[in-house]
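Figure S7 source data.
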Amino acid sequence: MTIKTVQATPFAGQKPGTSGLRKKTREFMQPGFLENFVQSIFAAIDGAEGKTFVLGGDGRFFNTDAIQTILKMAAANGAKRVIVGQGGLLSTPAASHLIRKYAADGGLILSASHNPGGIDADFGLKFNGANGGPAPEALTAKMLAHSQEISEYKIADVADIDLATCGTQDVAGMVVEVIDPVADYAMLMEDLFDFDAIRDMFEGGFRMRFDAMHAVTGPYAKTLLETRLGAPVGTVINGEPSPDFGKGHPDPNPVWAKTLMTEMMGDDAPDFGAASDGDGDRNLIVGKGLYVSPSDSLAVLAANAHLAPAYSNGIAGVARSMPTSSASDRVAEALRIASYETPTGWKFFGNLLDAGRVTICGEESAGTGSDHVREKDGLWAVLLWLNILAVRKQSVTEIMADHWQTYGRDYYSRHDYEALPSELATDLMEGLAARLADLSGQDFAGLTVESADSFAYHDPVDGSDSQNQGLRIFFKDGARIVFRLSGTGTEGATLRVYLQRFEAGTGALFDDPQEALAQVIQAAHDIARLERLGREGPDVRT
Ligand code: VG1
Ligand code: CO
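Tokens for the predicted cobalt (II) ion complex:
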């Protein structure tokens, strides 16, 4: 008998966060930790019997070992078939696509996204459902509940599976199909965008740099940009996935994508720069000398999506996470389409996309995507930008100038205070929450509070409610500050302070956001008494 039933004792702390379960790698590698969580996932979906799953990850340390364990557990739990990316690799959006394309019952994706990788860094696992999207809160609650009372798990006692060769194998009665991680995804992108127009643009001398940050998008970007679109070899840098991301931090923001930013701000900058994160669902967009904030990028993509074949009939609606700026709302209003404001995390977009209420979604954290999959999609955003640039034949700066003149500019920045003592962060948030009701009418740094609340979301599709999704403070002149604790960190707590101020299209549109927001930043300090954190300033400003 190859199926073993192993006694298990619950681990504390198997509560999935904003995007799956994320822990220090060593914690994930404790004997039984991964196994308990995988068994809890199977329990939450009423078993794996007869089911088909997609499996892959961003290639970080422990990726292939975890895949071996998951395959053996899927077999022992009676799964029918598992589709795995060759070498254990699948970007998050590619996994989402495969689940949908092959009508799988779900997928297990191994990643801690933008967090560093390695034995002393981070690891993660999330489950996506049959629609290709991250498990909703009701499902992650079931996973947690099972993890707290688990008494055994099942695993097949078989040799390791060959992940290096594409093809089909039998593992204790289950079919394992190893596939090219890029092929299906590349085909989907070719369906959505005008590759001929983009190819012509490259042929005409258009120059681009794509920084894959040693993470999973390297092979995807090389195939799409260099092989299929004819960008010169070398357009993609850091294109080999490595288990510790070249000791880097695969977070595509101006701080961590420093190499790219320096090149794009230099004299010989290419026309267009982009980067993606560990698992390929985020994107950074930067023009010659101009960083495009993710909130603005969402708005520009929504306003111009009709220029790409897949969206030529227009878009149904736009959704953004609450902390994301109002820029996309202005576009939706002008297009007379619906706009939605959801809590942070892609799982909240799933129902809106499934119901056809929205076509494009985005978050201020460098995530943009559409109804082509049920995850945010870094390369999709890059290709849509390229398609727009190819049709409009303008530079990124010209497009942004035109956009801001038309809609006005929402100056935006996020300040992160990382690895704070959890108690201190909780205390600060609770203290602020308790004072919210009294803030209206008070002045801070010369700004008058109009209203303040704790954001709650009522899902219009399934009727579910989510409370405490961030503290919002609105000011009389239209500025807004949001305070929120991160749900993806693995060390202490991270406080995110989201800052926003509107400038009309006739005003000063090209100021430095930190300067344009100086008053709002000061108000945030005064309201939340940020000096209590004992920090000189934020660790990261995006
Ligand atoms: C962060 C971002 C959020 C994003 C999440 C997952 O969450 O703020 O917008 O959806 O990461 O992104 P938090 O809870 O730390 O603020 V990724 O690229 O991990 O899949
Ligand atoms: Co990610």
